[in-house]
């Protein structure tokens, strides 16, 4: 979400900080956390909000969480308790959970995990994924509007590709070879979106650009706004890659999705997901299964385990009434012998 989109929704921006470096290295990621911490210390130290609301698992979130901890500002965290073993996001998410004072999870199982980490049950609420609220409320583009905006012919079979670096690996793009070699075997129209800014993204972008230059059937987009992206999910024939949108949002569109490699390993799977190892054969096998009429028919009437798009109402209602005086002091996690004695 860009600043312009936030302002368009009517929310004032009280401060702007410079923290993103022109780097896609792990050192750059670490420096981004440090720069953000310095700037946020001044901003939050002067503002002193009642609660700081953080979402998900991006490494940048460690900065505001650390500052809020030092300033004794209670933290509310959205989407804790999930698992994504192929990215450092997993460790970031768990760190944010332990720093936070109130939690809003996307699924019942995620709520159980947060409680198992020692958080008091009264602090942990199953709300659903807020991204589905945006999807439900947004006025999505029609096929004709998308074709005009993106210069596409969606009457053709179209594959949407969203692939990001695998940050748990030293070589964060080592699984990409299998993806590109598999896609070379296909003749369908493909729409690529740029990867995120994690370490290794520049190398991945360069490889994607070279790949796109080899075929007229490939369209590459640097940045698609959320509404355009969600509209595509409802109009393309398949999503391929390792984006969390393939786990969460695609299910609301009953879109066949091929999830590749480790990045989303461990996340709860809707029934529209087909997992593939980072090998050409495994990826092609999953793509062929996703194309099958039998698989597509089984998705009719499916539900999204990450919610129905009403998370924000619950989150807002709880934050408006939560007893602030109780938040900062968390009770210690019971020892196993204490639990057995109860």
One letter per element, helices H and strands E, the order comes to HHEHEHEHEHHEHEHEHEHEEHHHHH
The strand order across the widest sheet is 7-6-5-8-9-10
CATH superfamily of the largest domain: Glycogen Phosphorylase B
Average of per-residue pLDDT values:
94
Write down the CATH class of the largest domain: Alpha Beta
Low-confidence stretches: none
Structural class: alpha/beta
Indicate how many domains the architecture comprises: 2
SS element count, helices: 16
Percent strand: 5-15%
Globular, elongated, flat, extended or rod-shaped: what is the shape? globular
Radius of gyration: 21 Å
In CATH terms, what is the fold-level topology of the largest domain?
Answer: Rossmann fold
Give the second-level CATH assignment, the architecture of the largest domain: 3-Layer(aba) Sandwich
DSSP summary, beta strand count: 10
What helical percentage do the residues reach?
40-55%
- The end-to-end distance, rounded to whole angstroms, is 47 Å
Main sheet properties: 6 strands, parallel
Describe the overall structure.
It is a single chain. The chain has 342 residues and is of the alpha/beta class. The chain folds into 2 domains: 158 residues, Glycogen Phosphorylase B (Rossmann fold, 3-Layer(aba) Sandwich), CATH 3.40.50; 155 residues, Glycogen Phosphorylase B (Rossmann fold), CATH 3.40.50. The chain is built from 16 helices and 10 strands. The strands form 2 sheets. The protein has a 6-stranded parallel beta sheet, covered by helices on one side. Strands 1-2-3-4 form a 4-stranded parallel beta sheet. Helix 11 links the parallel strand 8 and strand 9. 38% of the residues are buried. The mean pLDDT is 94. It is an enzyme of class 5 (isomerase).
